[in-house]
From TrEMBL:
Keywords: c-di-GMP, Coiled coil, Phosphoprotein. It catalyses: 3',3'-c-di-GMP + H2O = 5'-phosphoguanylyl(3'->5')guanosine + H(+). It comes from Nitrosococcus halophilus (strain Nc4). PROSITE patterns: EAL, GGDEF, PAC, PAS, RESPONSE_REGULATORY. This is cyclic-guanylate-specific phosphodiesterase. The keyword DNA damage does not apply. NCBIfam families: GGDEF, sensory_box. One of its GO terms (molecular function) is cyclic-guanylate-specific phosphodiesterase activity. The keyword Phosphoprotein applies. Residues 435-687 form the EAL domain. The modification 4-aspartylphosphate is found at D56.
Amino acid sequence: MRKLRALIIEDSEDDATLLIHQLQRNGYRLFAKRIETREAMLEALQMQHWDIVFSDYTMPCFNTLEALALLHEHHLDIPFIMVSGTVGEDRAVEVMKAGAHDYIMKDSLSRLIPAVERELREAESRRQRQAADNERIRLSSILEATPDLVAITDLKGRIHYINRAGRRWLGLDEKNRCPMTLLTDYQPFWTAALMENNALPSALAEGVWEGEMVILDSNGSEIPVSQVILSHRNQQNQVEFLSTIARDIRERKHYEQALQHRVTHDALTHLPNRILLRDRLSRALINAERNQHLIAVLFLDIDNFKQINDALGHLAGDNCLRMVGQRLAQCIRTNDTVGRYGGDEFLIILGNLHAPADVEIIIKKIRAALSQPFRINNHDVFITLSIGASLYPQDGGDEENLLKSSDTAMYTAKHTGRDQFRFYAPKMKDRGRELLALETDLRRALEREEFILHYQPQLDLSTNQITAVEALVRWQHAQRGLVSPGDFIPLLEQTGLIVEVGNWILETACKQAQAWWAWGYPLRIAVNCSARQFQQHLLDTVRQLLQKYSLNPACLELEVTESVVMQDVQYATHILQHLKVMGVTLAIDDFGTGYSSLAYLKRFPIHSLKIDHSFVHELSDDSEDAAIAEAIVLLGHSLDLEVIAEGVESEAQAQFFQNRQCHRIQGYWVGRPMPAENLFPLIEARNIKCRIEN
Ligand SMILES: Nc1nc2c(ncn2[C@@H]2O[C@@H]3COP(=O)(O)O[C@H]4[C@@H](O)[C@H](n5cnc6c(=O)[nH]c(N)nc65)O[C@@H]4COP(=O)(O)O[C@H]3[C@H]2O)c(=O)[nH]1
């Protein structure tokens, strides 16, 4: 028994009963209500849902047309069958036009059941269609509202549907998009291979492809997208349509790139960091192997960087690293890489070299770029680098070995002095190991009291008396014997131990000077002052020592090299002026080998110039060195500076300086560096007249 809710609009109760019986006889379990007015129909419609409406054509207060109008008003699609006496063709047509589904004559109810069944069936299919339509409208409003591009294309790429976001991206409007617009026109050429070889075959074979792609917007700008492509088959199981859903991932990409940049770049200099440098090196190696090219790895370390940090502060140190990075970057080609390897170390990878000599061209460029002072915290700071280079393939076949070799070469360069460059050589490895062992011993040398001072006499050429000595440190190593300063001073510099050891030297020298003074020999004692010492509390240290040993400040001469004062001219001026006020004299050591900027001679309160022994060794009357040495003596005279010639080994050399009225000479000819006790007889013999009786 089928359930049927029937609303019967009928003024005749008998006719309604007849109708009900007819339906019940045919298997309907009926819930029926008879009404005969508009109000009753309204109430019935509000009361519940009806499966079917039967209506007589006319009643005293109501009729079929009014009933149909009422359903229409309430947007109700209920099968409506007019069951009436003869009404004439015109009226029947009118009723059908007004929305009735069928017309059955009361005296021929045999048609009733098939008509009811058909109308119920059709109503159900209309309902399903409507539900599907509603569903489609809902889905399409979602698609229209989504910010992702959604499109349906045929296999040729022609767009059959594209949502609002898609239209906006591609600059299409409803009219010009279909049917000839091709979605493939909005893909950059370089994604074609991925689309043809990967995305489409997968979507066709497996029904779906998911991945990252790029779409061109209406301006031709690339939008990176996360894309899904679905294939849709027809009833013959052939793919007929493809749908595409593309999500704009620009923001994600931007974050990914920022993250990637942060992981691979140094936050301070924005140069590639160690991770990226290694990656670039491994790529360069692959390239070099393929193309049979040379590669050079340059390891660069800032000389005395700690001093800049200590003297000017960490922010200034950071600034300095940034500026060095910028200048280095200007020295290389775009295909090469410069990065910060850590601390004050930089790395340069040079690819595609034809010969090792190419490296030296870059080194020249780097030196030229660093020759101008760096303006840091209102100070002009001169910066030099120790550079080591390794070459592929000879110095290492992989990243690890090339880096190690360039590091070893840099280490060797650093130990040779400031501003040095070295290519890697296999024997450097042994030297490196030796230096490491030396460094370990050096750290214990001070507490084991292994340092001693030797003194080398300086002869005053006008009086022919020894008036000064230079204090020169020696390291009395238990196994190695007497180690010369050339082998350990750079190590002391590099480890920072130079400050402690330098202070010990200064104190020992002051003590010795005071002892000589006490014995009646007012000798001036010259003490070498290293760059770091110069930067760290030098004034306080000197002041305290002069007080402690009640030493006449004129007995102390500090020797600094040109590079030490030129590193930070303002700071040097400040220190030198204070030392002068204290009464301590100052000598420029190794004069003629460094900057030789004459301007600073006037600016700094200097007492003497020491002609470097390299000009003294090859001295003969007509040599270039002789001309330089003579020029320095003349310069001293005209600037009212004392000139000391060092490395004087022969009488002829001594005579040369005597003839040019050089003030003092120092060298093996006068006496080698020696312990204080050995010096005593020498002074006694020469300086009889000089002795002051207490
Ligand atoms: N061939 C030759 N050489 C001569 C002659 N006369 C002196 N010399 C050597 O020349 C160097 C002069 O010292 P320097 O230029 O200050 O050069 C010094 C100085 O830069 C550094 N040094 C030595 N002692 C100290 C020190 O106490 N403190 C610091 N900071 N550096 C020191 O080590 C360098 C080398 O010192 P030394 O090996 O003692 O070498 C000394 C000395 O032994 C000569 O007639 N012929």
